[in-house]
Amino acid sequence: MTPRPIVSSAALATALSAPPAGTTSILTTLFDLVALTKPRLAFFSVLTAATAYGSAAVGLGWIHASAMLVGTTCAAAGALSLNQWWERDLDRLMRRTRSRPLPRAALSHRVALAWSLALGVSGVALLAVWTTHLAALLAAATIVLYGFVYTPLKRRTRWATEIGAIAGALPPLLGGAAAGAIASPTAWVLFAVLFFWQMPHFYAIGWMHRDDYRAARFPLLPAIDESGRRTALWSFGYCLSLLAVSTVPWAIGLAGPVYGTGALGSGGAMLWCATRFVASAKHDRDAAARRLFLASIAGLPVLLFALLLDRIV
User: Fold this and answer.
1) SS3 2
2) Is the full-model pTM beyond 0.70?
3) How many of the other CB atoms lie within 10 Å of CB of 243?
4) Which is it for the CA torsion 178, 182, 188, 192, positive or negative?
5) How far apart are CA 58 and CA 45, in angstroms?
6) What is the pLDDT of residues 167-190, one digit of tens each?
7) Where residue 5 falls among pLDDT bands split at 50, 70, 90?
8) Contact, 82 vs 147, CB < 8 A?
9) pLDDT tens digits, 48-93
């Protein structure tokens, strides 16, 4: 009589193909640590810094450029992780954020703080050693302003969004400073562009998730604006300013028609969406805010790509 196998062939194949439990745990932890850095926002910060750097850096070499990219990435990631560490208890109150690593206890708050500080210090040190001290100073200022000023002020004043936008707009200046060209017109224009871009972007998010912000008692404009009209009007004003600032390089001859087309197209699309946001009735403002949010997500990469393409053409 042939003995029956203790384990079926299908079960054995599954066991052999599955990764070890320890490997799965490590990968999950790594994904959670990356999630702390808000990769999408960090990407935009690094992209604007790289654009300003690329417009000003001449003959500095790939090692210098790599140090700028890695240092800026670490500094931005550290600031954004610090924000999540600080707001871990408040994130539990909001549907939009309660699935983040800290609210669902996937990471300890001590690990998150250590990770945030390690990223921030590493980024500043890398920039100081391999690029310029001014770039390192701007990276440190970004971390302090975003992590230690903007974040606690979100519970105190509706103007915290503007303060956070200043911190978020520093990467282009960092990129210019890393290239030794802090006075570069491109860096300063991108600083203004990024500031004005962030405001309607975050106001649109704030209006779509206003109930969450109210639950966490954040007195930000979308949370205290019952009808949404003030939020829409401020968004319109910032979009109009964005369109004006972004077309300056083309208007004064610092950039060509490729950039001008990109600036008019991306800025015009956001302004049109902001106009619809203002004109919408209260019950239609969620859809209008979502259109503005999507236009902002697409608009900034289009503008930066047009700037780089303009330099190549």
Assistant:
1) coil
2) yes
3) 19
4) positive
5) 21
6) 999 999 999 999 988 888 888 999
7) low
8) yes
9) 898 888 877 666 788 889 999 999 999 999 999 999 998 888 888 8
Q: Do domains 26-183 and 184-313 have the same CATH topology?
A: no
Distances (CA, A) of 184 to 114, 170, 188, 193, 255: 35, 14, 7, 14, 13
CB 135 within 8 A of CB 177: yes
**Structure tokens, 114:** 């250590």
Chain Cα centroid distance, residue 297: 10
> Which class is 184-313 in CATH?
mainly alpha
As a whole number of angstroms, the distance between CA 291 and CA 285 comes to 10
- Mean pLDDT of the residues in the chain: 88
- How much is the pLDDT for 172? 93
pLDDT digits (tens, 9 = 90+) for 19-54: 554 556 888 888 889 988 998 888 888 988 988 888
Query: What does the domain layout of the chain look like in residue ranges?
Result: 26-183, 184-313
CATH number of 26-183: 1.10.357.140
What are 135's two structure tokens?
């770039």
Yes or no: say if 171 and 127 are a contact pair by the CB < 8 Å rule: no
